[in-house]
Automatic annotation (TrEMBL):
SUPFAM superfamilies reported in the protein's UniProt record: CheY-like, Homeodomain-like
Protein's cellular compartments: Cytoplasm
GO cellular component, one term: cytoplasm
Protein name in UniProt: AraC family transcriptional regulator
GO BP terms in the entry: phosphorelay signal transduction system
UniProt-recorded Gene Ontology molecular function terms: DNA-binding transcription factor activity; sequence-specific DNA binding
Assigned keywords, A-Z: Cytoplasm, DNA-binding, Phosphoprotein, Transcription, Transcription regulation, Two-component regulatory system
Species name: Paenibacillus baekrokdamisoli
CDD domains, per database record: REC_YesN-like
Length: 538
């Protein structure tokens, strides 16, 4: 319930205002009356009502003066003015002091109700907004560490680009980094993380994360070297400020972090170190470098500290291994074995590809993973060409990609890829034996029905809903001849029968077996049977 004071120098007016309006229905309680402006002002000071409903012209102090004095004091009491004088200057002053309403005498009840209702609604709306803002501020205070960490994650992800905005946020979150100083990022991951947490409860996972975070932060604080935060469940990012960059101090800090985590939590970690940057808006690039460096534990194994600058030197060495033409040849051979359902051929080809990939460590992890992903994409297209979906035969494509990039060493990756393609080959080996005979019968039926019209491998494939390449492959493999050769054979055998059993002209027979050009028909017939069509009649 809102509170209100009515001020008017005439008692009859005050009583009338109290009685003609159902204040309770409007959510208002009249808590006092004032006979003049001075009394109204004093009552407002004592009772602090929500609304002052006051006449403008009163003794000692008029309503406008009361309103102005309250405004000067910063009071949030809402003022509704009432006056019998329709004076523009009064109305203008009422606007200047931001009065909530202005009512003329004689008072019309409906108009008064409408003015008061609007004032009440505005007060309620503002209080609701204030309450929500207070609640929001309390939530921000309660969740400040989480909000701070979220800012750091976004910063490291390259969400922010404006240096001034970043600096303001750094100051707000009390992060001891300047936006214009040289910085460097490292990324830490727990080795073999998925296997480590497989049988852990959620509480134990959180305790592990907390332990890692606590140890890293303590070491970073001891060295006064920067800040650390959790980027994801198994990525802990460190931002080193300028003092830690001299003499590559950060490498010493990384080594101590790894050692302490091993001693206190009994876990092995690997750390990737990015390139230095000269402004904080580029921090995501240093993190990307750190992640790229960290991938090289693919070759170096667990408990590795990998600096991207060292890897850059390694990458300057000419790569050896599969040259593109050999890779494409092996990929094509692999797809051929998949189509044929040749498990042995798939295994042999995968072994050959990985023998080259494992022959040296000069190939980047991205390259090795890229080869595997490329083979998966080609296999997916191959399977699709065969009228199937790889997702229904083996793992979902996104799962395959995720698994490829999760494998922590090349031996596990080889085993996974080999098993993946063997599963696909086994599927087609089984399916081929069941389906190929039925498909070939369907192809022959279509040719027998439509040999005398415009028929081709493409048109047949459209009827059977299989790709032309797949149809051609299984037909050739099963019959020893191509579909085009079979179409020609059917046409020629029908032509032979027509030549022997009818008196039709060569031109007419050519049309009946699907040839528009009789000369071409005669040439094709002679090639097929060894003699001219006319001689076949003799």
């Amino acid at each position: 319930m809102l509170t209100m004071i009515i001020a008017d120098d005439e008692s009859i007016v005050r009583q009338g205002l109290k009685n003609i309006v159902h204040w309770n229905d409007l959510g208002i309680e009249v808590i006092a009356e004032a006979r003049d402006g001075q009394e109204a002002y004093e009552l407002c000071q004592q009772l602090n009502p929500d609304i002052l409903f006051t006449d403008i012209r009163m003794p000692l102090m008029d309503g406008l003066e009361v309103a102005m004095k309250l405004e000067e004091q910063g009071s949030d009491i809402r003022i509704v003015l009432i006056s019998g004088a329709q004076d523009f200057n009064y109305a203008k002053t009422a606007l200047d002091i931001k009065a909530e309403g202005y009512v003329l005498k004689p008072v019309i009840v409906d108009e008064l109700n409408e003015v008061i209702r609007k004032v009440v609604n505005r007060i309620k709306l503002e209080r609701k907004q204030q309450s929500e803002m207070t609640h929001l501020k309390r939530q921000i205070h309660e969740h400040f560490p989480l909000i701070r960490n979220n800012f750091l994650r976004n910063l490291a992800s390259g969400v922010y680009v404006n240096e001034t905005s970043i600096q303001n946020k750094l100051e707000y979150f009390q992060i001891p980094i300047q936006s214009d100083e040289s910085l460097l990022v490292s990324s830490l991951q727990i080795d073999d993380y998925e296997n480590r947490i497989e049988k852990m409860s959620e509480e134990d996972k959180q305790l592990l994360s907390f332990g890692v975070t606590n140890i890293i932060e303590e070491i970073m604080t001891n060295y006064n070297s920067g800040i650390s935060f959790g980027m994801s469940e198994n990525e802990f990012v460190q931002i080193y400020h300028q003092s830690a960059l001299s003499n590559r101090k950060y490498t010493e800090i990384c080594a101590e972090i790894a050692l302490c985590l091993k001693n206190f939590l009994k876990i092995s970690v690997s750390i990737g170190i990015g390139r230095p940057i000269d402004k904080i808006s580029l921090i995501h690039t240093s993190l990307e470098d750190a992640r790229s460096a960290l991938q090289y534990k693919f070759y170096t194994g667990h408990n590795s500290i990998l600096d991207i600058s060292d890897i850059d030197i390694l990458n300057d060495t000419p790569n050896e291994g599969i040259i593109p033409s050999d890779l494409y040849e092996n990929e094509n051979r692999l797809m051929g074995y998949i189509k044929l359902g040749d498990v042995e051929g798939v295994t042999e080809t995968i072994n050959g590809i990985f023998d080259h990939l494992c022959s040296g460590r000069t190939m980047t992890v991205d390259y090795v993973q890229g080869v595997c992903f490329e083979m998966t994409c080609i296999a997916s297209r191959t399977v699709q060409d065969l009228g199937e979906s790889m997702d229904s035969i083996a793992d979902d494509r996104l799962v395959v990609l995720d698994t490829i990039y999760r494998k922590e060493n090349i031996a596990d990756l080889k085993s996974y890829m080999s098993n993946l393609f063997i599963i696909i080959a086994q599927y087609f080996s089984k399916k081929y034996n069941q389906k190929s005979a039925k498909v070939i019968r369907k192809i022959k039926d279509i040719i027998e029905q439509k040999y005398n019209g415009d028929i081709s491998v493409v048109k047949i494939s459209q009827e059977i809903y299989l790709t032309p390449n797949y149809l051609s492959m299984i037909f050739k493999q099963d019959t020893g001849e191509t579909i085009s050769e079979y179409i020609t054979k059917v046409r020629m055998e029908h032509a032979k029968r027509l030549l022997k059993s009818t008196d039709l002209k060569i031109l007419e027979i050519a049309e009946k077996v699907g040839y528009e050009d009789p000369h071409y028909f005669s040439k094709a017939f002679k090639k097929y049977s060894g003699i001219h069509p006319q001689k076949h009649r003799l």
